[in-house]
Amino acid sequence: MVAIPQKSSSDGMSSSGASVSGIERGWMIRTIAGTVQQLHDLENPHDPIRTVRVMAPDSSAVALGSSQRDEVIDQSRAHSAGLGIAHRRSGGGAVLIVPGRQVWIDFLVPRGDVLWSDDIVRASFWVGDMWRETLAAVGMPGGTVHRGRSEVGDWSETVCFAGVGPGEVRVDGRKVMGLSQRRSRDWTRIQTMVHTVWDPATLVGVLEMDDSARSRCLNEVSGLAREVTTGVDSVVESLVNQLPD
User: Which of 12, 27, 37, 194 sits at 20 to 30 Å (Cα–Cα) from 222?
Assistant: First the structure.
């Protein structure tokens, strides 16, 4: 049985306790609380050790991909919905992040590790395999890991879970685990997420588009993803148990 790490502040924020949550089979495991933007802005570790960051957002926001600008969001609708706007430096479409409604875990692997790959397509396959086994352990068997290049659809550049990319996991043809990468000379940061509440209506509801396009978008993306009904802590614990040695 793996103990769920306790929350700590993110790097550069005030801390009320130790930042290190534990080490499991050579992985540094931390649970980090902060705003959605603060969590996306975390720097790479100073020491070259495999790191797991279990992200605990303390506010709600729409996280935009690196190619998206604030203009894709209807500001008044977002304000009414209580949503901020965050920016990430990895690609893909918008993602709705609400405390307690997703499992968001980042994996950081230093260059030279056996898990490192210079091939950006293949670099995340091991993460997809690990998530597939995790999902099976929490009652969602039959997952498949996408091992080709990205498959795009009409809305995949707008809504992250409307397309599928390398390493991502689908169950019964519907996307369950989304993934993006940020790479530097020394680190690969693989950001992953599954929704415990899949709420496309809220996300599509704050996009800047006319009512006809919004209706069409919602109708088409609603059935493309699938939520995980197991509690957040159970998913995290199962995933930690799947970490490669």
Answer: 37
